[in-house]
Amino acid sequence: MDLETNNLSNKILTGSYDLNKWLEGGYERGIITLFYGPSAVGKSNFVMLAACHQAKKDKKIIFIDTEGSFSLDRIKQISQGLPEFILKNIAILKPTNFEEQNKAFEKIHKELQSENIGLIIVDSISMLYRLALAEARKQGPEEIQSVNADLANQMKILYEIARKQDIPVLVTGQVYNEFLSEEEWLSGKQAGVNIVGGDLLKYWSKCTIELQNEKGKKRALIRKHRSIQEKDLYFEIVNEGIRKKGWL
Predict the structure, then answer these.
(1) How many whole angstroms separate alpha carbon 43 and alpha carbon 28?
(2) Sheet of 90-93, strand order
(3) Confidence class of residue 86 from pLDDT cuts 50, 70 and 90?
(4) Taking a C-beta distance cutoff of 8 angstroms, is the pair 159, 206 a contact?
(5) How far out from the chain centre does Cα 13 lie?
(6) Is residue 2 part of a domain?
């Protein structure tokens, strides 16, 4: 099957043939897809690749960039000579603190009216939240609750937009390793990987994809999906995007 011409109507293409095949057609419309994993594992590449592919089709993209991850050089590599056409279709919001991130979400919730929006991306939703939460812990439980409520509201806004507009939303999130006691460490227990924002992000995301870096080997795992069972894909990042990689 040619995924570029026979994509299911309820999905959008990822920008990578191998990813399209792995996801059985691409990213689902009407839901939030969450990518999470450690730094430098490729989260931004996944979402930028999708943004470029949709922009090439003259779809409008809203890209909330909280980490400065949006790279013009990377756009030039992926687009292979069409950066101006792509960039004119991408609206970039760059909040620098959690309060500005809240305002960015309120803005798109109130002003999103175009019928040509092809994709919404948040890269990442957790960095500024993490900083705000660290400050909130110094002030007490009420402030912690307030910050968590703001994050929950942001995810709710994305969910409502995805459902009502029938468009895909791609979100990236950071992770941290759980703390092991000396006894647990000596017993050989392995530290688990936790998503910053935890259940708040997982609850609103109908598809979750974990990205791992195992001694230089990058691996994607479908952890939750409405129609696909858990499976993995070893991949590499190349100039034109992402492709399947088979290591010996």
Answers:
(1) 17
(2) 90-93, 60-65, 117-123, 169-173, 32-36, 207-214, 217-224, 232-238, 241-244
(3) confident
(4) no
(5) 15
(6) no
Give the angle subtended at the CA of 42 by the CAs of 209 and 229, to the nearest 5°: 20
Characterize the bridge pairing of strands 32-36 and 207-214: parallel
Residue 186's identity, in one-letter code, is: L
CATH number at residue 131: 3.40.50.300
Give domain status of residue 234, yes or no: yes
- For 145, residues 6+ apart whose C-beta sits below 8 A from its C-beta are none
Helices (H), the chain: 17-22, 43-56, 72-79, 83-87, 98-111, 127-139, 141-165, 182-186, 198-204
CB 53 within 8 A of CB 4: no
50 is a domain residue: yes
Which helix (H) or strand (E) covers residue 39, if one does? none
Q: How far apart are CA 239 and CA 76, in angstroms?
A: 9
Quick one: which of 86, 58, 14, 69 has its CA closest to 235?
Answer: 14
Looking up tokens 């996944």 gives 46
Looking at residue 13, its amino acid is L
Q: What is the pTM for the complete model shown?
A: 0.88
Burial of 120 (0-12, 13-18, 19+ CB in 10 A): buried
3, part of any domain: no
Q: What confidence tens digit (pLDDT) does each residue in 164-186 have?
A: 889 999 999 988 765 544 454 44
Range of the domain at 141: 11-213+222-244
Cis peptide before 114 (omega within 30 of 0): no
The gap between the terminal CA atoms of the chain, to the nearest Å, is 28
Tokens 């109908």 found at? 206
Tokens of residue 18, six digits: 């191998």
Q: How many domains does the chain have?
A: 1
